[in-house]
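Hello,

Our lab assistant flagged a job as stuck in the queue for most of the afternoon. It eventually completed. Since we weren't sure the result was trustworthy after the delay, we are filing this so someone can double-check. Below is the sequence as submitted and the structure that was eventually returned. Let us know if re-running is recommended.
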Amino acid sequence: MVHASIFAALICIATITLRFPSPIGYVNLGDGIILIAAWVLGPVGGMLAGGIGSALADLIGYPQYMLATLVIKGLSGLVAGLLFKRGKLLFNLLVAFIAETIMAVGYFGWESLIFGQGLTAAAGIPFNILQGVVGIVIFALVYIKLKDDKFYRM
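-- returned structure --
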């Protein structure tokens, strides 16, 4: 629980402080931390840290997304945590891609509900893809550095 809380705080901070505006919100670096949390903590910790940390960040700037973010980022962390395997870089990159696809599709669905039309929501897809790619790169860099560390699983 303590480790998930620390990761949630890191995710919130990375989301709030390291963000770049887009037409439908912002692109942030929090997804990379969600993937790292899921890799280190497993499915429950990844889900809690990803969902809560990201939702808290939205509470500050984009509260209309908070509930969706709790579910979408939590699901991304859960799936990644369930699928990550020790010592399998290419497989884990595929898992990270799946988790970030969940994020992009989840926000497209939420924005379609909010705006009432898919075309307007589609404007956010490239930015969610960019955020996902950045998250995967951050995860890959940390994974490559720590994959052989015997203490990377808490």
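-- support follow-up --
The delay was a queue issue, not a problem with the job. The result is valid. Residues 24 and 123 are 8 Å apart (CA to CA). The beta strands are 19-22, 25-28.
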